[in-house]
Amino acid sequence: MSIRSVRVLGPVDAVGPDGAVVALGGPRHRAVLARLAVARGRTVPLETLIDALWPDGGLPGRPAGSIRTFVAALRTALEPDRPPRTPPTSIVTRGPGYALETSVDAVRFEELLDDDPAAALALWRGPAYADLGGAPWAEGERARLTALRLDAVERLARRRLDAGRPAEAVADLDAHTTEHPWREEGWRLLALALYRARREGDAQAVLRRARDRLADELGLDPGEALARLETDVLQRSPHLDLPSSDLWTAVSGLGPRVALESTTPLLRTLAVHGGGPVTALRRHAAAVAEARRLDDPGLTARLLGGYDVPSVWARSDDPASSEVLVSAAEWCLAGSPGPASRARLLATVALETRGLPGSRGPAAAHEAEAVARELGDSTVLRHALAGRVVQAFHRPGSAPDRVALGREILDLAVTGEDPTAEILGHLVLLQARSGLGEAAAAQEHAEALGRLGERHGSPGVAVLLDGFAAMRAGSEERHRAAAARIVEAGMPGVGHGLVALALAGLRLRRGEPPGELPDAGPYAPWLRAWHASACRQCVTAGTGRQETPHRRIDLPDPPPGHVADALWVLAGHAGRAAGNRELVGRAVEALRPAAGEVAGANSGLLTFGPVADHLAALAP
Q1: pTM for the structure as a whole
Q2: Least CB-packed of 48, 86, 424, 572 within 10 Å?
């Protein structure tokens, strides 16, 4: 049994699987561990560790021996159940020094920043490396992490504001601006949160305080954004009530309920035809939150049901906004709405819980489909089937199920003359046919999509087709360019980590070493495990030594989604390289139903090659 995590976001310590703090020894033991953590998995030479522990001289008689003693004690503390004479897996000897190969909370913090800033901030227990004083090697890392933490506070506040929850943002921002008065964005967000919480006087007072502190302490006038907000608050500009948008401003004089209802078709148009899905999603969530604040379940249900923007990716572009929509939909469902509204609300739950574990999303998708079929309304059924599509990843090997769903969506779309649903049907079929290795059929859907996207002004289609072309070309350069366009188009749920996963697929298929990979985003645990095990295997092969079997790798099951099979492939190869039979067995069992498919290709954006080839490679 090894530790669960090394923690440096506060005093340096480690916690075991049960959450209990592990005794690490004295200050120098913690300093060694901290210096290894700063290196983020890279090798720290013995001489560097000596300099870190005795920066001002005063070396003991045998400093190298002292370091080895500290490392040995740390290994015992971090792996108390490691059998005698078996190699350590927490602090490994590598070349001229040591490397830390276990989870570190600072690394997890950075992985969570984009998708879940609240969870990222929850990892902090105080200043980073708090018990290391002014150690020069720690100060740079401490400053870097502190800057990221301040960004995370502001990022979380923006999400709460975009989701229509200003009161939740106020307390954190109040403390934030008090501690860091030079951050103008913090002042701006605090004033905006107070204004949207109906505390206009407090918002004005905050803006005056910001102006005074900037002038007194830094001798500066407020920047453009802060000055503009001060003017807008004084004038009570309508666009401050929801995330600023020309669409909202255009209808804001119609009264709150009429205005909110009028934004739904406009935001749907924004999501499909330009402006970015994530922008429209956040503004839609803010409108829904406002309707719920008015305690109007009928209006809330109409807003939710009218925003029938389908998705072709089993991961939300903005989890905080999705959470707002799911909560509102469940609130409306508790009021026993009529069958059409119920089907649409259930479809919303299915769409906005995509890629999450648990049974609620799949159950909502199936119930929405059943209610819609009984109702006999093809429009409602198309919405329900869109929810079924993103929940149809309960296991690898489900591409045939999505082929059937794509065909039905396409038939309904053509019958009902619905171009958005027609595009969805072709996208679903492009992905599923790619997953089945049917390249010619996938290409036919790509060509149909190109024509539809151009005819109906849907720029996101062209962006996704770039990714499809990159997958077929097998070019690292084209993968990088396509992923950049996806992110720029406002689809972070699709694009974040996509390059790293695509490049891993190319290199694994070619039998090449992992090499350097870009930001892995949500795929980091599986890519990191494969990368570490593959690199270890390469080093071992180069020295003629054999890899020690049964190295423990703690990997969760991949979340349901388009690339779950690719992540299982990475897990299996990581387990094979490390001699971890348990992990290999889990991967083989998960992949076996997909033996006739192409790993990763269900995305329509990347490929790891035939699953059957990987199963053969992983066979004992």
Answers
A1: 0.61
A2: 86
